[in-house]
Design a protein that fits this description.
The complex is a heterodimer of chains A (622) and B (321). Helices cover 49% and strands 25% of the residues of chain A. Chain A has 622 residues and is an alpha+beta fold. Chain A starts with 6 loop residues before the first helix and ends in a 12-residue tail after the last helix. The chains are: A alpha+beta (622), B alpha+beta (321).
Chain lengths: 622, 321
């Protein structure tokens, strides 16, 4: 036998130990836990632990550890009953202070292992139960509304500039404006191009009279769609946060779709109500002649006013009933830097209607306060004394900004005096409250918890049976070498578990099917090698040479064969449908790890056992 | 344990025409089945609503249908799912595309009542189903193309054609079987077929690899003999690999539950078909296309061979003078 390279067994041992380490978190199990985070995403304050301890002490609830994990505070309990009791108490205490408390299962992985990045595998919704929604944002509606706005705004702008036109009409996604002569047309063209950078002005090809076609530029259309999806993402995230779910997923998929996944949620109806809620906003004047604090205390509200509280700070405001401009009239809100002061600000644009009303208001109210009210219908679930859920629709109405009017403005203005984070949040909320493109649920998958548990149980038993059958077969057929193959397969499964856990790839039911299938295919590498060794023995080679020849000649064949399986799985992965990804990932990782374990692993074993026995007559491979 | 005491000597290639003819016949039958009988597409592809409900004890399907009818869903297909207390309700895509449909169906059959448990709700909008069918077909074609390119690169184009023919053959046969038995074709079935394409090709490559090796080693034998020898040499390995793969698929089929039912059925059928197609379709077709020894030699060796031939020719020429 060749001098066996020293690095191979060393790599094998190191890789196996690493595999063992990172697969380990999966054996500890989980504690029922309550996970508390701030709705803003900021880390919870440093003294949060004391506060939670006090709440639990008052209710005589015993916890099993309470600590900061990432930006969240996680409290563990002995049983799900205690966990439910605790989450009620914690929710009551934190009510309305910008915290989200959610039920979760926290891994019992010891601290030293978590510090090394050890985590248990992430289970897909089909294994842990939960709801999955795919939402389609109606971007066509957004574009249509934008064109509708053009048909009012552009002619009005021309009238204001005293540029006369003789007719206007809608033509598909553009509006056509007709003029009496070419001179007027040219003047109008320059004026529009200067005022509306986001529009494309062209000459319609079939025009009989001098006319201009005005449409949204491609960049603008794309921005509108992006904005519409972004707005929905923000509102959905807000709502999902309030729903109190551990590890929710709300993310964009493709150009105009949003995926929402809520693990552990069992009632899709509740989620549908939540996703269907709408948000809007209103610009209103602040009544500065009355004292908001005393109105809030006494409950006596001056005629013509309404009482609101500011988001976060809970400061009361008395606002006039009349709306200056509404969310439907807001066309964009972006965080920016104020040119004069150099401080963060939010730049807001209104459409023609909104601009006119804003101009009317600001021209009479310079130096006064103007506020933005954010309104949202929210479904809130509370628990009565018997622990039953009570659902109620609740309108959330909050002041998200109150600022002094510094000058007269219409279509475009800035809100200043903000921190950069505040500017970003305000812009997000303004966007969310502006006309939100309607969303439609185009896919729903709800897996009840019992089915999830069944799937895990079935998947595990199928995997164990498959593994057992393959092991028995290999040992009966290849004897000692069969044992090597089994050892290689076991290490391979260990590595697969470790890689899945380390990279937090989601394990789904098709993923488990992939692992089971993989066990059958992975031993193929060993079968190839062993058959080759048998052949070489038949051809009269000495046992140790036969081992070398078998491994050397089979290597390329195995690599070639594995590449083609990888091609299939990669395509499955890019096909993108969630459950299939899980299958593709497990199969792909398995193929890569098996190339290592089946070849290096089993060869090292064969070398250890037979390498020193130079005068071996035959191999126990028959 | 050994099955053959020596390398078997079956004359596979002699029957290659019979093999190819049988394949052609079965493939045509499968294609006709798929065209005229169609496939039992799951809601992943058709769109629609699927609700799995578990009752505390066995229920009569009639009763569930009646309840559904009262709720206005008399078109629902109701069947038992893995036992007489679990019922699967399917509704075709209709005007009411909203996901609220699932809520109403659940209400109609009394989910939420004592012991009645929602196990699973799936709603797929028609546009999603359509896209998936489209993406699925594209995925298959891309997979075929990439694998063909890889084989053409590692071996030679005649082998690539043989390999692709075997892949198409296997995929079509599985589809034919699914059509015949009316097993549901869902996303996991698509996964099974794509995995099968890789697996079946694995078989083909092992044989091709051996053909190449033997062509280089035994220069005297004819291509025909070499192919026969290679198939025989790899036969045992093929059988054993198929056995281990079948073992795990059977484990999945028996214990994996209904979620992976169509997956394991497709794999089992595919693995059986692949055993035969790797010998007769891929290798047989490559031989029929006229594979030559030169085709498979690595470039350097081929150059050397050409050089050697040239020298021989020159020497011959010299001899004439």
């Amino acid at each position: 036998m060749h001098q066996y390279p020293f690095w191979k067994p060393v790599t094998l041992i190191v890789v196996t130990l690493l595999g063992l380490l990172y697969a380990l978190p999966n054996v500890y199990g989980e504690d029922p836990a309550v996970q508390i985070s701030t709705s803003s995403g900021d880390p919870v304050p440093a003294d949060f632990g004391d506060r939670i301890a006090k709440v639990l002490e008052a209710e005589k609830i015993e916890d099993r550890g309470s600590r900061l994990e990432g930006t969240q505070w996680v409290v563990r309990f002995a049983s799900p009953e205690v966990q439910l009791h605790a989450v009620d108490a914690i929710k009551r205490d934190l009510e309305g202070q910008g915290y989200v408390s959610a039920l979760n299962l926290a891994s019992k992985t010891p601290k030293w292992l978590s510090a090394l990045g050890g985590k248990p595998m992430a289970l897909g919704l089909d294994l842990r139960g939960g709801v999955h929604f795919l939402l389609q944002v109606a971007v066509e509606d957004v574009k249509k509304a934008a064109v509708e706005r053009l048909i009012n705004d552009v002619p009005k702008f021309l009238r204001d500039k005293d540029l006369r036109y003789s007719g206007r009409r809608k033509a598909g996604e553009a509006i056509v404006i007709e003029f009496a002569d070419a001179d007027r047309l040219e003047k109008a063209r320059t004026a529009i191009a200067r005022e509306y950078r986001e529009l494309t002005v062209s000459t319609p090809p079939d025009a009989t009279v001098p006319s201009l076609a005005v449409s949204l530029s491609e960049v603008e259309a794309k921005r509108l769609i992006d904005d519409a999806v972004q707005k929905n993402l923000i509102t959905l995230r807000n709502r999902v946060n309030q729903f109190g779910v551990a590890e929710p997923i709300v993310q964009r998929q493709g150009a105009d779709r949003i995926v929402v996944q809520l693990p552990g949620v069992q009632d899709p109806t509740r989620v549908k109500e939540l996703l269907g809620a709408t948000a809007t906003l209103e610009y209103r004047a602040v009544d500065e002649n009355a004292d908001a604090a005393s109105a809030a205390a006494s409950g006596v509200i001056p005629a013509g006013d309404e009482l609101f509280y500011q988001r976060g700070s809970h400061r009361p405001y008395l606002l006039k009933r009349e709306t200056i401009a509404s969310g439907a009239e807001l066309t964009s809100a972006t965080p920016t830097i104020d040119h004069e002061s150099g401080t963060p600000a939010v730049s807001v644009k209104l459409d023609g209607n909104g601009a006119k009303k804003m101009l009317d208001f600001t021209s009479k109210n310079v130096g006064k306060l103007m506020a933005v009210v954010y309104k949202e219908t929210e479904i809130k679930t509370t628990y009565n004394t018997r622990g039953e859920a009570i659902r109620e629709r609740r309108d959330v109405q909050e002041v998200i900004s109150a600022a002094t009017v510094r000058g007269v403005f219409g279509a475009q203005f800035q809100t200043t005096g903000l921190s950069s984070r505040e500017a970003r949040d305000l812009a997000d909320l303004l966007k969310a409250g502006a006309l939100v493109a309607p969303i439609e649920i185009i896919e729903e998958r709800t897996i009840g918890p019992s089915l999830g548990a069944d799937n895990i149980r079935r998947g595990m038993s199928a995997a164990l049976l498959g593994l057992g059958l393959v092991m028995v077969f290999m040992v009966v057929y290849y004897r000692v070498f069969g044992l090597f193959a089994i050892a290689a397969l076991t290490v391979n499964l260990l590595l697969l578990t470790a890689v899945l856990s380390l990279f937090q790839a989601t394990l789904t039911m098709p993923g488990i099917a992939g692992i089971v299938l993989h066990m059958g295919i992975a031993v193929d590498a060993n079968v190839l090698i062993y058959e080759r060794i048998r052949e070489e023995l038949r051809a009269g080679l000495k046992p140790l040479q036969a081992i070398d020849a078998g491994y050397d000649r089979a290597f390329l064949t195995i690599a070639d064969a594995n590449v083609t399986v990888l091609i299939g799985t990669l395509i499955l992965f890019f096909l993108g449908a969630g459950a299939l990804k899980g299958f593709a990932i497990t199969l792909a990782i398995g193929i890569v790890t098996s190339q290592f374990t089946a070849i290096v692993g089993s060869r090292t074993l064969a070398h250890w056992v037979f390498g020193k026995r130079q005068n071996l007559k035959d191999l126990p491979i028959w | 344990m050994r099955i053959f005491s020596n390398v078997p000597k079956f004359d596979f290639m002699r029957q290659r025409k019979v093999g190819l003819a049988v394949s052609a016949l079965l493939t045509t039958a499968s294609i006709l089945l798929v065209i005229f009988r169609g496939l039992n597409f799951g809601i992943d592809f058709t769109g629609g609503v699927l609700v799995e409900v578990q009752f505390p004890q066995s229920v009569q399907l009639e009763k569930v249908r009646e309840d559904l009818g009262k709720g206005g869903y008399e078109h629902g297909i109701v069947q038992y799912f893995g036992g007489s207390s679990t019922v699967l309700i399917r509704l075709p895509p209709n005007q009411e595309t909203s996901a609220n449909l699932s809520t109403k169906v659940l209400a109609a059959v009394g989910a939420g009542a004592e012991g009645v448990q929602m196990r699973r709700v799936e709603f797929v909008g028609p546009q999603v189903g359509e896209e998936l069918s489209e993406k699925g077909s594209i995925a298959m074609i891309v997979a075929f193309g990439l694998i063909a390119a890889f084989i053409a690169f590692r071996f030679e184009w005649k082998f690539a054609i043989g390999a692709i023919a075997a892949l198409v053959h296997d995929a079509v046969m599985v589809l034919g079987f699914l059509s015949l038995t009316w097993v549901e074709f869902d996303l996991t079935t698509l996964a099974a077929i794509l995995a099968l394409i890789g697996y079946s090709n694995n078989e083909t490559i092992v044989i091709f690899d051996r053909v190449r090796e033997n062509l280089i080693r035994t220069r005297k034998a004819t291509v025909f003999e070499v192919v026969n020898l290679s198939v025989n040499q790899t036969l045992l390995r093929s059988i054993i690999t198929h056995v281990t793969t079948l073992l795990v698929c059977v484990a999945l089929f028996t214990l994996g539950g209904s979620t992976v039912h169509s997956f394991s059925v497709s794999m089992i059928v595919g693995v059986i078909v692949a055993t035969y197609s790797s010998i007769y379709v891929s290798t047989g077709l490559a031989v029929a296309l006229g594979v030559k020894r030169d085709d498979l030699l690595p470039p350097e060796e081929r150059d050397e061979l050409i050089k050697a031939e040239k020298i021989a020719k020159q020497e011959n020429d010299g001899a004439v003078v």
